[in-house]
C-alpha cells in the first residue's frame, strides 16, 4: 500500500513538474505574448551559439551579437533593416558554418543601441555610427564581408563607398536607396503619405494586430499564418518605439538619404553581390538592374516566389549564396560574375 502511495506521489510530482512550464507557456501565449517573443529570441540565440555583447565608445553604446572568432575566412558584419534588430539575422545564421566569425549589430537607436537624435538616423549618420562600432570592436583589423538588407543595404553600400579599404566583399539584399524604374505597392503608400503631409499611418509602423498582418503581407510574398496573440505580442513589443521609428522613417525618406546608395554606387570598389526577391512590394526588383548597369561586374541573384523579407522567406538559400560568394572571392582573388 505504501509503495502504491509512493508511486502515486511520484506521478503527481512528475505531472506537476511538467505542468508548470506548460501552464507558463499557455499563460504567456494568451496573456503576455510579448514576453514569449523575447524568450523565443533569447532561446534561439543560445541554441545557435550567439552571444550578446555591448561596445561603448565616448558615451555611445552599441548592442550586438556574435559567434566565432576571426579566422581564414573574412568576418561577416550584418546590418538589419528599418525597425528591425540584430535577431533578424538568426534565420540566416542558422545555415552558416559555426566557425565563421559573424557579427550582428543593432542599428543606431534600434533595440539595445543608444538612441540619440535625428542626425544619427540619416543614412550618412548611420554610416558614421557603424564605422564607430567597427573601430570600437576592431573589426577592421583586416577587411571584412559586409551584408545589409533594406535600409541596412543602403547603409552598407554607402559604408563600402566611404571606407573601401575595410571591405573585402559585400552582399546587398533588396537594398533601399535606389531610384528603381518600376513603382511598388509601398511607393503608392509613400505618395499617399507625402500628399497627406505624413498624417496617415505609415505601413511599416503598425499599431494594431491587423496592421501588423498587413505589414507582413506587404513585406513577404510567402504567406505566414501567424496567430492573433503573436501579432498582438509583436505590436506590444514595437509600440513603445513607434515614435522613434517615425523619426527614423522621416530621416531615411529625406532627399539626402532616399537615394544615397545610388549616388555612391560608382565609388564602390569591393566585389558586390545583390540578392533580391522577384515579388518585392517594398523596393522594386528593377533596382537590381540599376545597380548592375552602374557596376557591371556585380553578381545578381533574383529569388523566385520571394518578396522583400528575403532573410525570413529564403534563409537557407540566402546563407548558401552569401557563403558561395565569399568563397569565390577568396579563391579567385576578387573576381566576380553576374548571374540571374
SSE map:
Blueprint: H1 2-31, H2 33-48, E1 51-57, E2 60-67, E3 76-79, H3 90-93, E4 102-105, H4 123-136, E5 144-149, H5 151-162, E6 167-173, H6 185-195, H7 209-219, H8 228-238, H9 242-252, H10 255-258, H11 260-264, E7 272-277, H12 287-294, E8 299-303, H13 310-313, H14 315-332
Helix pairs in contact: 1-2, 2-8, 4-5, 7-8
GO molecular function, one term: monoacylglycerol lipase activity
GO cellular component, one term: lysosomal membrane
Catalytic activity: 1-dodecanoylglycerol + H2O = dodecanoate + glycerol + H(+); Hydrolyzes glycerol monoesters of long-chain fatty acids
Structural account:
The chain is an alpha/beta fold and 340 residues long. The chain is built from 14 helices and 8 strands. An 8-stranded mixed β-sheet has the order 1-2-4-3-5-6-7-8, with helices on both faces. Strand 5, helix 5 (151-162) and strand 6 form a beta-alpha-beta unit. Helix 1 (2-31) packs across helix 2 (33-48), helix 2 (33-48) packs across helix 8 and helix 4 (123-136) crosses helix 5. The radius of gyration is 22 Å and the shape is globular. Mean pLDDT is 89; it is low at 1-31 and 335-340.
Short account of what is shown:
This is acylglycerol lipase. By secondary structure, the protein is α/β, with parallel strands linked by helices.
Feature tags:
disordered N terminus; disordered C terminus; 340 residues; globular; 8 strands; alpha/beta; single chain; eight-stranded mixed sheet; 14% strand
Report the β-strand fraction as a percent range.
Answer: 5-15%
Output the structural class: alpha/beta
* Global outline: globular
Fraction in helix: 40-55%
What's the average pLDDT? 89
Cα gyration radius (Å): 22 Å
SS field, number of helical segments: 14
Give the strand tally: 8
Strand order of the largest sheet: 1-2-4-3-5-6-7-8
- Poorly predicted runs of 5 or more residues: 1-31, 335-340
Run of helices and strands? HHEEEHEHEHEHHHHHHEHEHH
Distance from first to last alpha carbon: 75 Å
Outline the biggest β-sheet.
8 strands, mixed
Protein name: acylglycerol lipase
Domain AB hydrolase-1: 74-315
InterPro entries: AB_hydrolase_1, AB_hydrolase_fold, AB_hydrolase_sf
GO molecular function, one term: monoacylglycerol lipase activity
Amino acid at each position: 500500500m505504501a509503495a502504491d502511495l509512493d508511486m502515486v506521489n511520484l506521478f503527481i510530482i512528475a505531472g506537476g513538474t511538467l505542468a508548470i512550464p506548460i501552464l507558463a507557456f499557455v499563460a504567456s501565449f494568451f496573456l503576455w505574448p510579448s514576453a514569449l517573443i523575447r524568450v523565443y529570441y533569447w532561446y534561439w540565440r543560445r541554441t545557435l551559439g550567439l552571444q550578446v555583447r555591448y561596445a561603448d565608445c565616448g558615451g555611445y553604446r552599441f548592442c550586438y551579437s556574435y559567434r566565432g572568432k576571426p579566422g581564414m575566412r573574412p568576418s561577416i558584419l550584418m546590418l538589419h533593416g528599418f525597425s528591425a534588430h540584430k535577431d533578424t539575422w538568426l534565420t540566416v545564421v542558422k545555415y552558416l558554418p559555426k566557425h565563421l566569425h559573424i557579427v550582428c549589430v543593432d542599428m543606431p537607436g534600434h533595440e539595445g543601441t543608444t538612441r540619440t537624435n535625428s542626425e544619427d538616423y540619416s543614412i550618412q549618420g548611420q554610416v558614421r555610427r557603424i564605422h564607430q562600432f567597427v573601430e570600437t570592436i576592431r573589426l577592421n583589423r583586416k577587411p571584412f564581408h559586409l551584408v545589409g538588407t533594406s535600409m541596412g543595404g543602403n547603409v552598407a553600400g554607402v559604408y563600402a563607398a566611404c571606407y573601401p579599404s575595410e571591405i573585402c566583399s559585400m552582399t546587398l539584399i533588396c537594398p533601399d536607396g535606389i531610384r528603381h524604374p518600376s513603382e511598388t505597392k509601398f511607393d503608392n503608400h509613400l505618395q499617399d503619405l507625402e500628399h497627406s503631409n505624413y498624417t496617415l499611418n505609415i505601413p511599416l509602423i503598425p499599431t494594431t494586430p491587423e496592421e501588423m498582418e498587413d505589414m507582413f503581407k506587404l513585406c513577404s510574398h510567402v504567406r505566414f499564418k501567424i496567430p492573433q496573440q503573436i501579432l498582438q505580442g509583436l505590436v506590444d513589443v514595437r509600440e513603445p518605439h513607434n515614435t522613434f521609428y517615425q523619426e527614423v522613417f522621416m530621416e531615411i525618406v529625406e532627399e539626402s538619404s532616399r537615394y544615397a546608395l545610388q549616388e555612391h554606387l560608382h565609388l564602390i570598389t569591393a566585389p558586390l553581390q545583390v540578392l533580391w526577391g522577384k515579388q518585392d512590394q517594398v523596393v522594386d526588383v528593377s533596382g537590381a538592374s540599376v545597380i548592375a548597369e552602374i557596376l557591371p561586374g556585380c553578381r545578381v541573384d533574383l529569388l523566385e516566389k520571394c518578396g522583400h523579407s528575403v532573410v525570413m522567406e529564403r534563409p537557407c538559400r540566402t546563407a548558401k549564396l552569401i557563403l558561395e560568394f565569399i568563397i569565390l572571392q577568396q579563391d579567385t582573388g576578387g573576381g566576380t560574375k553576374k548571374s540571374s
